[in-house]
Amino acid sequence: MSAVAELFQRILRKTRRPATHALEAYLTGLFIEAPDHDPEIGSLVHVHNDGRVTGFIGVMPLPMAVEERTVRAAVCGSLMVDNHTDDPFAGARLMRAFLSGSQDITLTETANDISTAMWRKLRATVLPDYSLEWLRVIRPAGFVAEMAANAVGAARLLSPLARPIDSLIRRGAPGPRLSCLAAAVPEGTFPSAEVDDETTAALLTKWTEAYAVRPLWQPENLRRIVAEASSKALYGEMVRRVVTTRDGRPLGLFLYHGDPGRIGRVFQILAAPGRIGEVIDSMLAHANERGMVALRGRTQPVLLEALLGRRFVFLHASSSIVHTRDPTLLEPFLAGKAFFNGFAGESWSRLIGDRFD
Q1: Alpha carbons 160 and 164: distance in angstroms, whole number
Q2: Which residues pair with 266 in a beta bridge?
Q3: Looking at per-residue confidence, does 105 or 54 come out higher?
Q4: Exposed / middle / buried, residue 269 (Cβ in 10 Å: 0-12, 13-18, 19+)
Q5: What is the phi/psi pair of residue 220, to 5°?
Q6: CA 283 to CA 269: how far, in whole Å?
Q7: Contact at 8 Å (CB) between 82 and 353?
Q8: What integer pLDDT is reported at residue 59 of this predicted model?
Q9: Which of helix, strand or coil describes residue 17?
Q10: Could you read off the pLDDT of 175-231 as tens digits, one per residue?
Q11: What is the structure's pLDDT at 143?
Q12: pTM (2 decimals)?
């Protein structure tokens, strides 16, 4: 895996620093020695004529239920090709080899524009309702300062000046609801509390049962996924809370990473049927109390209606894609009845957002 780790550093992390043993060990554990390893659904490397490894597709098997049917899915994670100009068809060869595998369904949630074009040529389907990112500004001045700091690091020195501006905006904004201009906490927000790995895994299993397409995680593997999703040091501190009624009944779960004064990255929102709006309100209230300037996350069809009424902005950064040779397996994805993205994807892995020092 050392050659793959070096590719990861250069192509995906865009750094010339040598890959660490920790990164190489994680890639091995994720793509070769994982508890859910399937010998018939594996990762692939592209080898140049001179013997160099010049491409890689990281593949994670994911057993899924489609209605009452059990199928084999494969999640395409890290897709990278070195020196595309020397061999412009290397990526296409990797993709064709991967899609001709034993899986019934192939999924990816992080396809950039170049990858999406390749997927389309191979008759894959882009899922628009799963491919949007949402943004919710909580502190407008703080958000502008943070965006400037992301472009020019020294601009972060101006962040303290944004706080009094946001205080003025709040005092002048009418109404109790959160908006793009002020982040007053909604009245009647349900409480939330920190939750551990075991409870998270149990709630994941419970609240995904209503989906027509859902993962069939083995308990050992689900515990590993939940634990690893917490480790994203590049994004900030992990916040994982269960939302409850006044008498303690669980309504939903939200998980995001971020530090006060920064933009939080929401990894997953789950809810009992009909309660998604209340979970979103509780999440926004908590982020407001922590001093977040904004939250951003990925859509799922079940979230869209609730998001539309709460002053969210939508944009596109990468595409969620499904490929299958069986039209009956595609239908639930097109109808928005599949649980896909987040824990049912590749973004839970430490390769997205963590350090390997």
Answers
A1: 8
A2: 256
A3: 105
A4: buried
A5: -60, -45
A6: 9
A7: no
A8: 94
A9: coil
A10: 444 444 444 455 668 999 999 999 999 999 999 999 999 999 999 899 999 999 999
A11: 87
A12: 0.88
Q: How many angstroms from the chain centroid is the CA of residue 64?
A: 18
Say how far apart CA 247 and CA 244 lie, in whole Å: 8
26 Cβ neighbours under 8 A, 6+ residues apart? 350, 351, 356
Two structure tokens written together for 252: 């939903």
Supply the angle between the helices 90-99 and 113-121 in degrees, to the nearest 10: 50
In sign, the C-alpha dihedral spanning 192, 274, 186, 163 is positive
The CATH number, out of the four listed (3.40.50.1820, 1.10.620.20, 3.40.630.30, 3.40.50.300), of the domain defined by the range 2-128: 3.40.630.30
- Work out the burial of residue 308: count CB atoms within 10 Å of its CB; fewer than 13 is exposed, 13-18 middle, 19 or more buried: exposed
75 half-sphere exposure, CB direction, 13 A CA radius? 24
| pLDDT of 19 strictly over 60 | yes
Contact 179, 288 (CB under 8 A): no
Lowest mean pLDDT among 163-167, 180-184, 282-286: 180-184
Same-fold call for 2-128 versus 133-318: yes
Q: What is the 3-state secondary structure (H, E, C) of 256-325?
A: EECCCCCEEEEEEEEECCCCHHHHHHHHHHHHHHHCCCEEEEECCHHHHHHHHCCCCEEEECCEEEEECC
CATH superfamily of this structure's domain 133-318: Gcn5-related N-acetyltransferase (GNAT) (3.40.630.30)
DSSP per-residue codes, 41-69 = B--EEEE-TTS-EEEEEEEEEEEEEETTE
Q: Where are the domains of the chain?
A: 2-128, 133-318
Q: Is 250 helix (H, G, I), strand (E, B) or coil?
A: strand
Distance CA(293)–CA(268), nearest Å, equals: 19
Residue type, 235: Y
Q: What is the mean pLDDT of residues 138-167?
A: 74
Contact of 99 with 286, CB cutoff 8 Å: no
